[in-house]
Amino acid sequence: MIQLKSLLKVIDNSGAQIVECINIMGTRGRIGYVGDEIVCVVKKAKTAEASTKQATSSTLVSKLRKGEVCRAIIVRTKKETLRKDGTFIKFDDNAVVMINKQGQPLGNRILGVIASEVRQKRWAKIASLAPRVV
């Protein structure tokens, strides 16, 4: 359950590290669940100096900077989620994957596991990038 002002971890290589939720897209009200789209503000991003040590000259500029408003998909929540088979699943942190306005992921790699509800809610591209879907 993600609400306004929640801080979330970014698990892709888009350049952002911590984001703050400012709006939940859709009609469910003010609470966001796994697979929901949110609007967020980048609170912490990777600096250009840190990325120059690992990146090549073509990728020196980070895709997202601090203060940018962007969209994201919730892929993990601390609050347990009931599945149709009667089991519950919860994670250690609240995490998102950054997307653009067309719904395509900004990063080309996802670091960490994601919930299977992401695939069921029309985000198959994000699920295919993840190393593991739980």
UniProtKB/TrEMBL annotation:
One of its GO terms (molecular function) is large ribosomal subunit rRNA binding. The keyword Ribonucleoprotein applies. HAMAP family: Ribosomal_uL14. Pfam families: Ribosomal_L14. SUPFAM superfamilies: Ribosomal protein L14. Component of the mitochondrial ribosome (mitoribosome), a dedicated translation machinery responsible for the synthesis of mitochondrial genome-encoded proteins, including at least some of the essential transmembrane subunits of the mitochondrial respiratory chain. The mitoribosomes are attached to the mitochondrial inner membrane and translation products are cotranslationally integrated into the membrane. InterPro entries: Ribosomal_uL14, Ribosomal_uL14_bac-type, Ribosomal_uL14_sf. GO terms for cellular component: mitochondrial large ribosomal subunit. Keywords: Ribonucleoprotein, Ribosomal protein. The keyword Ribonucleoprotein applies. CDD domains: Ribosomal_uL14 (cd00337). This is Large ribosomal subunit protein uL14m. One of its GO terms (biological process) is translation. Belongs to the universal ribosomal protein uL14 family. It comes from Clydaea vesicula.
